[in-house]
What we know:
Elements: E1 9-13, E2 16-19, H1 23-35, E3 41-44, E4 59-62, H2 75-85, H3 92-111, E5 133-137, H4 140-151, E6 154-156, E7 159-166, E8 174-181, E9 187-191, E10 194-197, H5 227-235, E11 238-240, E12 249-251, H6 259-264, E13 269-270, H7 282-289, H8 300-312, E14 318-320, H9 329-340, H10 344-352, E15 362-366, E16 380-381, E17 407-409, H11 421-442, H12 452-472, H13 488-502, E18 511-512, H14 514-530, H15 539-564, E19 575-576, H16 584-587, E20 589-596, E21 601-608
Parallel strand pairs: 1-9, 2-3, 2-10, 3-6, 10-17, 18-19
Antiparallel strand pairs: 4-5, 7-8, 8-9, 11-16, 11-20, 12-15, 13-14, 14-15, 20-21
Helix pairs in contact: 1-4, 1-11, 2-3, 3-11, 5-15, 12-15, 13-14, 13-15, 14-15
Amino acid sequence: xxxxxxxxxxxxxxxxxxxxxxxxxxxxxxxxxxxxxxxxxxxxxxxxxxxxxxxxxxxxxxxxxxxxxxxxxxxxxxxxxxxxxxxxxxxxxxxxxxxxxxxxxxxxxxxxxxxxxxxxxxxxxxxxxxxxxxxxxxxxxxxxxxxxxxxxxxxxxxxxxxxxxxxxxxxxxxxxxxxxxxxxxxxxxxxxxxxxxxxxxxxxxxxxxxxxxxxxxxxxxxxxxxxxxxxxxxxxxxxxxxxxxxxxxxxxxxxxxxxxxxxxxxxxxxxxxxxxxxxxxxxxxxxxxxxxxxxxxxxxxxxxxxxxxxxxxxxxxxxxxxxxxxxxxxxxxxxxxxxxxxxxxxxxxxxxxxxxxxxxxxxxxxxxxxxxxxxxxxxxxxxxxxxxxxxxxxxxxxxxxxxxxxxxxxxxxxxxxxxxxxxxxxxxxxxxxxxxxxxxxxxxxxxxxxxxxxxxxxxxxxxxxxxxxxxxxxxxxxxxxxxxxxxxxxxxxxxxxxxxxxxxxxxxxxxxxxxxxxxxxxxxxxxxxxxxxxxxxxxxxxxxxxxxxxxxxxxxxxxxxxxxxxxxxxxxxxxxxxxxxxxxxxxxxxxxxxxxxxxxxxxxxxxxxxxxxx
Length: 614
Ligand code: SFD
Ligand code: AMP
């Protein structure tokens, strides 16, 4: 048995500490080694980097590639595209920075062995859409992980980081992170001169569509648990756009993505009666949401909005007419490969439900909301931009540094910069690592000091669920119901119910208002009161317990931001029924928040949206 005091404590020193070995974390390890040849680079990953994170199952497309060397796009074009898609609110400095560097990342992927499909007539990468290129990407993650494995000095797989550690003598300066080994229960304390949080987005904050035998299935990876946000929030970092949750249109039940079908295969979605509906509501949408309805392409959230209006009008199900486009063997292969490379579960659902996409259309459905910063959404940390692009309001010394000294972010971690996807997240990891190395070099006299008493107390807190279980395991009312504790899974279900019903999940047609949100905040507070009573039978459940803790912190930020922004900026992602219109006069701004760890209180404010690209 591993008791509350844990098995043993292991201290690890590092120069650069990377938390999370997904796309951004691997990019950070690679680039940190390039700029910091002699530095000790330590990467910590709660799973195993070979198959961890959102790309674990693989991908069938790289969704951000400009094609600069073939003059296919300019960085400005990408900034405009992402700005329109996010209804006008985006950090243009961050996105321009990604756009000017992302191609080099994609070329590296190819050099490392990722098969990128070529257009035979031009020799260029074959496009899925304007920004996307097609890949044979089942092994995308192992290929990317190899680069990180060759770059990092040490990699700790199966170690989950639960807390960031601040410097004993400088309360707003990072000094490391703590967590535990999910395999052997060792309590790890990492000391670092700079740290990069790259620990992905968040699923299972809102109640998923999947139930019963499919429970746990989500579009974004089920193990993305919001550490990227919770670690930062708990440490007092400023966050941005946390209200901007993502709802994606997906093939029903398997959550298969639609991009390849819409863009490459040119399939059309229609209502149950065979009518196209995407632009049907445009005049009503214009009245509420303004000229954003004229953006090309039609913004992702508005595509959802049209679909939801149609379903509310009783014209569902929405059907993707796959059978109209799979008319050659090559296209049929392309369609199936899309899922076999990326979302195998969709192929399985089709097989199990007798759906052959070349014979009959397949249902689409809007997913539950996700919290992330790299897809068509931009929740995350408020970070400094690059010196050569950012206005003074967005620049405080080091690119991608959060408001905590020496603490950087990349990928889903970084807010206000959507549409980065896999390639942009890896690129942002590289950008953050370059800046982190510079930070270390500029502060070469700094050595991190931790508060030993705090570390001792923290260890007790981290392992407490194991002890709670040992003490109370015989006090069971029935089955797994105990008057003395709750299991992580019970807590997740409670969280999902609160967020679904009070913060605009699918159960409420994505609609909420201030009364619901305020009650939701109260209920979340009650859930938080119960978290010290979490019990874990083993290390696996201990991880689930800490994942729940991080999910609750993430959820709290989402609900507070949603309350603060008094408008409906992203219809189709969520609606404020008390403020049903988009309000550019008052809300063409970022919503930022900060949790004060010393006072235990939240504060929210508006930050200007500064246009850099016409
Ligand atoms: O079709 C801790 N994504 C797509 N990107 C594309 O480029 N093309 C696509 O086709 C994409 N599509 C797609 C995508 C994702 C998924 C799941 C599907 C389909 C089904 C998005 C990208 O995958 C995404 O943008 C990037 O992966 C984001 O990168 P990053 O690094 O921010 O997140 P990550 O890769 O999930 O990695 C996070 C890592 O952190 C670990 N971790 N480690 C230690 N301690 C903790 N506390 C930790 N918490 C988390 C994780 O294990 C993970 O390794 S499509 O739908 O558009
Ligand atoms: P998805 O598969 O839905 O995650 O989308 C993959 C990529 O295609 C993302 O860049 C989307 O924004 C884009 N996309 C998906 N569907 C459409 C569409 N109907 N029109 C324009 N872009 C789309």
